[in-house]
Design brief:
Length: about 150
């Protein structure tokens, strides 16, 4: 049986594993029309389909390799001229990598940052920049090439 359905979308994520769900959530939080497709009966990929022990063993080495320099290209910085010290980014950071006093400039500890982009997503003042702050000062929402 063949089924055809058409969607207008900015981002198409193929695969509802941990990485696919994370990518889809990040895109949707940034206001992009996002479609996540999965061939299995549930989301979660290997983590929910019986290979939990194997996945758990790979998480730390994956994090080190990808997010701490072994190919990871993304870093987040707080822009000094835009940060008002509201603290929302620090409260939402799952790695507790952001510090700063109320109404003062906040700083991201690059060694603790897991590059999830939550700080970037929640900042209402565009004070969080991806990559080096001298290279990227404003957010630009671009639809990825399909």
């Amino acid at each position: 049986m063949t089924m055809e359905k058409r969607f207008q979308t900015d981002v198409l994520v193929a695969g509802g594993g941990v990485a696919g769900v994370s990518a889809a959530l990040t895109a949707a939080r940034r206001g992009l029309r996002t479609l996540l497709i999965e061939s299995q009966i549930s989301l979660g990929g290997l983590a929910t389909h019986g290979s939990v022990n194997r996945v758990a063993g790979m998480v730390e080495s994956y994090r080190e390799r990808i997010f701490k320099g072994g190919g990871g290209k993304v870093a987040f910085f707080i822009l000094e001229d835009k940060c008002i010290g509201c603290g929302l980014c620090a409260r939402r950071c799952p790695a507790d990598a952001i510090s700063g006093e109320k109404r003062q400039l906040h700083v991201i500890d690059q060694d603790r940052c897991i590059k999830c982009g939550e700080c970037y997503s929640v900042c209402k003042f565009d004070a969080v920049s991806r990559n080096h702050p001298s290279l990227v000062a404003e957010r630009v929402a671009e639809a990825p090439a399909v």
